[in-house]
Amino acid sequence: MKPKTQQKTKYPGVYVDTNGNYFYQTEFGIDRITGKRIRKKGRKDINGKPFSSASEANKELTRLKREYHKVNSYANYKMTYEQFMNKVYIPYYQTDVEESTFSVRKRILERIRDRFGSIPLRSLSVEDVQNFRTWLLSSKENGGAGYSQSYASLVFGTFRKSLDKAVEMQYLEYNISKKVKAIPKGKAIVPYWTKQEFEKVINQIYIGDFYEHLNFVMLWTYYNTGIRVNEGTALWWSDVDLEKKRLRVHHMIVLKNKSDWKRNYYTKTEDGKRTIALDNDTVKILIEWKKRQSEIGMGNENDFIFSYDGLPMLKSTISRIIKRYAKLASVKEIQAKGLRHSHASYLINEFNVSVLVLSQRMGHSSPEITLKHYSHMWQGADTVIADEMGGNIKIETATKTKIAFNGNQSLKK
């Protein structure tokens, strides 16, 4: 007769082997996804310490059972992170944000999903999270992702939010990623063009050509209004009052390609809806461009301002235009959103504009947001004030002391 390798204890599911070591072994039910039985067996507690008694093994088994039954009505106990992302988080996120935001963040969500893939959601460890954080911050030469500080912060933050949702849905007891330090955003300075650099750029554009004329109008309008990229591509001629010299910014384009786009009646934020005053040069440039468009049957109320074919302009096209003329002008290449930062710099450095006025023009919800993004541009803006302060106060001191000092305050000659 074959000798037993394990014996039962007074606790159901808890055993002791021939070496006197305690362990638990039980079944929790059927996996709703795979159809297989969920079996659990272990010889250590949650802290990795071997059981020294049947009582300790029973405590750990009781904890696991309680944890399983708590979440089983909501989710599968062995759900992988990939399954959670595909079935729960990505669909939830898509309905919770704007379409334009989801289209940008979708790739990030998929990268995170693929990173942890088949790891059971409940098996994610502090080591997994820390290794992910290290990878995000490491250069490609060192086997890392090679991301910028700000992008790594965005990816890691997105990962943490996914686990927050898992906790909220009671798939998890706690967010394991919060045991690892978050990645600071860092100071993200967006390159922009100074007035001198912008002058060099427009000097390379030949407006005698229809398409180059469009390039000129687009770059000029972005530079002199500070509108967001997708606010500009959404502009119709009905948004411009050329007599009162006003530009109404009330729409944004959600655009995937030339044939798949949507013009929404809102901007990035509620405070983004605004009316911007236009300078005389911009008004004159827009009038000339409208006439040019009318030559090919465009320029009507519901026609796009930045268009040569009746369709909105792609962000990638704007980027190529910027790159082309930056190279010709021998100035630094900037992103499309750098034109917005260029406008802020232009107003601050050329006109010493107040933060309140800039905030309203940029469509920020508060001056604090404006300072968060552009405070560095005001550095040195007080030079004029400092120059004017010189000689403003008349300096005339006493010819002799009028105080009788005693003790330590008295300095002997």
Automatic annotation (TrEMBL):
GO terms for molecular function: DNA binding. PROSITE patterns: CB (PS51900), TYR_RECOMBINASE (PS51898). The keyword tRNA-binding does not apply. Keywords: DNA integration, DNA recombination, DNA-binding. Residues 188-387 form the Tyr recombinase domain. Gene3D superfamilies: 1.10.150.130, Intergrase catalytic core. Residues 83-167 form the Core-binding (CB) domain. The keyword DNA-binding applies. InterPro entries: CB, DNA_brk_join_enz, Integrase-like_cat_sf, Integrase_catalytic, Integrase_recombinase_N, Integrase_SAM-like_N, Tyrosine_recombinase_XerCD. GO terms for biological process: DNA integration; DNA recombination. Belongs to the 'phage' integrase family. PANTHER family: PHAGE INTEGRASE-RELATED, PROPHAGE INTEGRASE INTD-RELATED. This is Site-specific integrase. It comes from Ornithinibacillus bavariensis.
